[in-house]
Design brief:
single chain, 411 residues, OB fold (Dihydrolipoamide Acetyltransferase, E2P), 5-stranded mixed β-sheet, 10 helices, 41% helix, rod-shaped, NA-bd_OB-fold, NERD domain-containing protein, NERD
């Protein structure tokens, strides 16, 4: 705008034509200029406000200020001064949005990829690596919340958007969607983390007793006619003289700070406090069918009685945080009872289920059948994820400084 000055006086005025009041601006040339508060582009208008304005003449030839807004030149100078005070350098780049993409990879690779970035985050911030996703999601929430606070200061907000400190309107939706993706990643990562920890506990117990197994195989899934209709991933298939056991590891409650309770009903439904009912038994039935389908269909095992190739399900809860209320006939045990559970039938009958050579042949068939490193879709951070997240945090922090010093910015 063409002219600059300071609000010198404000008068309440209740006339129908002048609803809201009027005031006078002391212009730089010391001229006192009348204006209606309704002509101001911001509120509340206060005595002492630095403003800029255009002028017009009324019917009597008197000068009026219309429109009136805060002095943008002065605000910009004050913003620059505050940036310098906090050693912030303006960037021509848009407010960064940390990148996350859906990638096809196997679970182990996905876990390691995210874990590497988390470790870097932990070192950079002297924080627990596992807090990365929730922390960055909080930074995004802070940015979006602060953006709404500036809605009451539209002129200032526009200045900060131009300086790429606040997000442009077109960036609001991508930031909101990113939060949803990060929440999903965080949920999956926690599940993978505790899942892997649980499997490591079970694996140690199997190794302790020198048992042979196939870990995390992905086997073809068959329909009732024997046709392959998909694939299913299994935690462990243990093959030994004690028979074939399909182990499903459920590390429920491992990440909780309080005791949890799991109830397995007579029909095999699993329920936990605060969680929806799960058909874990049905899930493992698919695993059993997949294993038996591969073994029954193998030409290399046709001379072995089918009864020997039947797989038995075992569910392992590898922590002490949960109370198990098992009303079903399924074997749901702690890790410490795993070996006793596997050998129980042989101890009672005193007769091995599989010979040493049969164990070797069954393992070979399973390893040939599994789809090694089967790939699934995982959301993973891109290579600039942390750098962009740190930039996002830095710009939020300087925007918060501006909001905390509104009096200085408008002064």
């Amino acid at each position: 705008m063409e002219f600059h000055g300071k609000v010198r006086e404000i008068k309440p005025y209740d006339h129908r034509r002048h609803t809201g009041g009027y005031g006078f601006i002391q212009a730089e040339n010391d001229q006192s200029i009348f204006f209606l508060l309704a002509w101001a582009k911001y509120e509340p208008v206060k005595v002492g406000d630095n403003v800029e304005f255009e002028t017009e003449l009324d019917e009597a030839g008197r000068i009026h200020a219309n429109p009136v807004q805060r002095d943008e030149t002065r605000m910009a100078a004050n913003i620059k001064q505050l940036f310098q005070k906090y050693n912030y350098k303006s960037s021509r780049k848009l407010l960064p949005i940390p990148g996350v993409t859906a990638q096809s990879t196997n679970m182990s690779a996905a876990y390691e990829s995210l874990n590497t970035i988390q470790q870097q985050f932990g070192e950079d911030n002297d924080a627990l690596p596992a807090t990365m996703l929730s922390t960055i999601n909080e930074w995004i929430s802070n940015v979006l919340e602060l953006d709404t606070y500036f809605d009451e200061h539209p002129q200032l907000k526009e200045l900060l958007i131009k300086r790429n400190v606040l997000p442009k309107q077109k960036q609001i939706e991508p930031l909101t969607e990113l939060q949803k993706v990060i929440r999903k990643m965080n949920y999956e990562q926690r599940g993978r983390y505790f899942g892997v920890k649980g499997e490591q506990t079970v694996q140690s117990k199997l190794d302790q007793h020198h048992l042979q197994y196939v870990q995390n195989p992905t086997l073809p899934e068959f329909d009732t006619d024997g046709n392959v209709v998909g694939a299913t991933e299994i935690d462990f298939i243990v093959v030994s003289m004690f028979g074939i056991h399909v182990i499903e590891v459920k590390n429920y409650g491992a990440g909780k700070g309080q005791e949890q309770r799991i109830t397995i009903s007579r029909d095999g439904q699993w329920s936990r406090i605060g969680s929806t009912q799960e058909n874990v038994t049905g899930q493992n039935d698919l695993h059993i069918s997949a294993v038996e389908g591969v073994l029954f269909d193998s030409d290399a095992l046709q001379d072995i009685e089918r009864v020997k190739l039947l797989a038995a399900p075992v569910f392992v809860i590898p922590n002490e945080n949960v109370t198990i209320n098992n009303q079903s006939s399924e074997q749901v045990i702690r890790t410490g009872f795993l070996y006793d559970t596997l050998v129980r039938n042989v101890r009672e009958s005193r007769q091995a289920v599989l010979s040493e050579s049969e164990v070797t042949r069954v393992l070979e068939v399973l390893k040939q059948a599994l789809e090694a490193n089967r790939e699934f879709q995982y959301f993973l951070p891109d290579e600039n994820f942390l750098e962009d997240a740190y930039q996002l945090r830095e710009r939020y922090e300087i925007a918060q400084k501006v909001f905390d010093h509104l009096t200085d910015i408008y002064g």
